[in-house]
Amino acid sequence: MKTKSRSLRAQFLIRTFITLMMIVMIAGTVQFFYIKQQVAKDVQRKSLILSESVEQGIAETKLASTSIEHQIDLRLLSYATRISYRLGDQPLQSITNKELKSLSKELGVTGITLFGKEKNDIVGVKATDPSEIGFSFKKIGYTIGYQSLEKLYQNEKVPYTSGVTYSTRTMYALPISQSGSHGNKPTFFKYAYYHAPGTDYIINPYIEANEVYQFTNKVGPNTLINKMEEKFPFVKEIGVLEPTVFKSPELAKKLYPPLKKVAYGKYTYKDSKDKQIMLDILKGRKSMTEYIKSYGHEKVYKMFIPTKDGQVIYIALDYSQLSKSLSRSSIILIVSGIASLLALFFITARFFNEIYVKIRLIIDQIKRLESRDLTAKSNIYGVSELTELSEGLNSMVDSWNESVRHTKQQADKTQKLSVLLEAEASNSVEKMFEMSTESTMKSREQLYEINEFLDDLKEILTVYNFKEKEKTLEKIEEMKIVANDRTYATTNMTIALSDLIKSLQGQSAELSEISNALLKSMDKFKL
């Protein structure tokens, strides 16, 4: 079964359309992955910028807080030495709580506690605050606190690795933290511990640390994080996490150093893998971790970046909002690309349609030439190879037309001449037949008369005897032979001439048939 072939125009349009669609799909796929990478890079870049800002804010706050806290440490050292001077050489048991309250009020400290040794522990013996009496670091499970007090008794310097903010052989200060003896209401104080050489007690002056907390709340990391969340709508939340608390949650219950799982900011978009990320960061296996997770209808980008001081900055961003602008740009680019390709397709289709129309004109001309129409011409205007082809075909058609027309004229002449030749040959044959018949009859009559005359002459000469009689009779016989031969030759020549004229008549008839056939063939051409 013969399949129906598509036209060149249909093939071109189909192939062009398929090619353009493939370009659109490939370009769209490349654009999709490129935009996806760009979104990831943009999100990562913004996250790193935010983390750097948070880390810088933490560093600046810590520097300022440390400076303020150091000033407080020096003040507490001054208070402790003055208290020791005022108490003098009194033993611990002779010092009264009333005396301590008077000193506290005079110096402007929040409270004073005197620690002394009891059995295998160091406890609060005298204090301005009754709740401090009986307080022991051992009782609350803070072994390092107990060991630090022992070092003071032994006149040894407490190492900074123990979490102290200031340390000498006679004194050390703890960071601002919640009081362990105020269980009902969380209260934050700055504590210092001083042991005067030669005494059996440790002086513990402490002051409320409201000024430091107010400073931290006003210009610290939490304020910076809140400003970032307000300024950048794509920020879901930012937090500063303590990976050690993720590893050991019991650290959040200890007084020193004061640790919380979330040191600053918020951490509400929790996931089971976050703990493992914290452990890997803590072990040094990972430097930075990021992943995307859906929480309900929210698609959140999460990044964990470790800091130099061992904390981890956690950033949660609205991935949908971040990718919206780039996705919109991508859609615009893809749509504009498709529009451009469609415009190119229509322009190309229109251009090829013009070419196809011209090709159809040439094909129609060739088909007319196939049907022997030598008047077929195509009119293609413009400057192109198809115009040159059309002009060449038209010129060839003119040449063929002229050649066939000339051939037909010559065939007409040949046909007419062949008819005349055939007629003349026919007449000549008849005349030659009459002439040959008449000539043959005359020659035969003459031969008969000559033979009769020579026979009579021979009979007469036979009667007479003369010298050359035999020779004369032989010559008479020779004359008879010559007469017979000449008569025979004349007859043969007449017959040959008649055959020649007949052959000429046949050839003229054949030539006439050929010219007729040629004229019939010429008549099939349209001139």
TrEMBL record:
SMART domains for the chain: HAMP (SM00304)
Keywords: Cell membrane, Membrane, Transmembrane, Transmembrane helix
Transmembrane segments: 12-35, 331-352
HAMP domain location: 359-405
Keyword Transmembrane helix: yes
Listed GO CC annotations: plasma membrane
Subcellular location: Cell membrane
Protein name: Methyl-accepting chemotaxis protein
